[in-house]
């Protein structure tokens, strides 16, 4: 508890809940698990497409799923648009995601009118640039229905 | 009479944006105050702001890195309140807050500095990070339905 101090808490109400790191390579059968819900909704499908595109290093699809003014938080960094993300960290994130193995532990998507929330946890393992990776990650996605299409307008990644 | 109706329409059209803006401002003010309450709760190890502002659904989980608390009471009793025993000092400075209200749903992102001192070891820490809060409007006002926090030591960012 003390090692993280308080600010690394993540509140995951079951009504919204859960999981997937953006860096998801696994696609398990989750249809009957209480750890997975809402994934068949339109917003849930978008969230899964996003994870898949990152793990397959498909930049075009990743960009197509982001709102122009997406706000992305990871660690101490912040990016305030899709263009900024593409210019800065998209390539690194795709390289990392495609190099490691990520297993989704939980993933829940809840739709509230024209907005939706995707919350997920995942475990990532492997080796990246000579560094062993073995960690649990958390992701919050906020999606907005824009002109009839779900777009990711906010991402928060942590591990 | 036509002039009267026309005046009413003009007045309505002229004032409605301000009414809407006022509602937006009220929402954002309420949310800001909630976040400030919660941060004070963390700093003082006081669970009351959490009971007051979190929706606390049955079965809710509160995940902290690899661990998690199950339910709001578990979060307060096993995380919030013990902090005051573990930490001699904890300060959370909110550097920035961005709030977005979408009908009965809202989200806010805060940029924070977190510093403190561990009571047992005397170790001090100084971190910068972000918090994402998601809110739902209820009959009792806005309630936090999800929060996600992450911090990192205050040092220059390195690419992966």
TrEMBL record, chain B:
The keyword Signal applies. Residues 79-150 form the SnoaL-like domain. This is L-asparaginase. Transmembrane segments: none annotated. Keywords: Signal. The lineage of its organism: Bacteria, Pseudomonadati, Pseudomonadota, Gammaproteobacteria, Alteromonadales. Residues 1-21 form the signal peptide. The keyword Signal applies.
């Amino acid at each position: 508890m003390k090692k993280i101090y308080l600010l690394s808490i993540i509140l995951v109400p079951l009504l919204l809940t859960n999981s997937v790191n953006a860096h998801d390579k696994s696609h398990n059968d989750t249809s009957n698990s209480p750890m997975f819900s809402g994934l068949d909704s339109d917003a849930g499908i978008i969230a899964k497409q996003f994870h898949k595109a990152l793990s397959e290093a498909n930049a075009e699809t990743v960009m197509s799923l982001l709102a122009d003014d997406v706000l992305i938080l990871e660690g101490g960094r912040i990016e305030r648009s899709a263009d900024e993300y593409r210019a800065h960290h998209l390539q690194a994130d795709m390289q990392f995601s495609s190099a490691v193995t990520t297993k989704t532990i939980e993933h829940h998507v809840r739709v509230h009118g024209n907005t939706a929330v995707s919350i997920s946890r995942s475990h990532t393992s492997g080796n990246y640039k000579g560094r062993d990776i073995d960690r649990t990650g958390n992701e919050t996605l906020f999606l907005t229905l824009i002109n009839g299409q779900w777009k990711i307008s906010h991402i928060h990644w942590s591990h | 009479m036509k002039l009267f109706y026309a005046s009413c329409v003009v007045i309505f059209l002229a004032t409605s944006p301000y009414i809407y803006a006022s509602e937006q401002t009220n929402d954002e003010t309420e949310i800001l105050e909630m976040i400030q309450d919660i941060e004070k709760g963390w700093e003082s190890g006081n669970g009351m702001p959490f009971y007051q502002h979190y929706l606390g659904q049955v079965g809710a989980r509160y995940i902290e890195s690899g661990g998690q608390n199950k339910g709001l009471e578990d979060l307060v009793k096993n995380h919030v309140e013990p902090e005051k025993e573990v930490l001699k000092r904890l300060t959370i400075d909110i550097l920035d807050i961005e709030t977005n209200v979408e009908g009965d749903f809202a989200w806010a992102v805060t940029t924070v500095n977190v510093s403190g001192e561990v009571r047992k070891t005397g170790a001090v820490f100084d971190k910068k990070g972000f918090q994402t809060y998601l809110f739902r409007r209820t009959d009792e006002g806005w309630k936090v339905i999800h929060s996600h926090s992450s911090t990192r030591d205050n040092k220059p960012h390195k690419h992966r």
